[in-house]
Amino acid sequence: MAFHPQTHLRPPQSEINMIPLIDVMLVLLIVFIVAAPLLIHAVRIDLPKASSAPADIQPATIQLGIKADGQLYWNGEAITEAALEARMQDAAQHTPPPELHLQADASTPYEILARVMAQSARAGLGKIGFVSVPEKK
Known about the structure:
Layout: H1 19-35, E1 61-66, E2 72-74, E3 77-79, H2 81-92, E4 99-104, H3 110-123, E5 128-130
Parallel strand pairs: 1-4, 4-5
Antiparallel strand pairs: 1-2, 2-3
């Protein structure tokens, strides 16, 4: 019995048979699905439970008094404008930066207030509050 290929009866096949490729891919997918949980190296740790409130860090406040004649007071101590700028830069280095509370006379010129506010902004003291006396009824 001799086997003779009969290639002359069938034309050559010009398509790729995709079924074996799909079968291999499905088998590989199943292998990876089964093996993936084995590759996870996790350690379970039972952490202790504690109740604590976040630390409320209140920034310090600086009382800056300004008289009508332009005299400056840093927390009650008289200072010059040159010393004011140096103190503002030192105060801005703290974390969190302190709040600046301006206490100005009612007749203080706006120019002085604007200059002090610009100095504080350049130094890094962005929180500025104005202190006033409440009206009596």
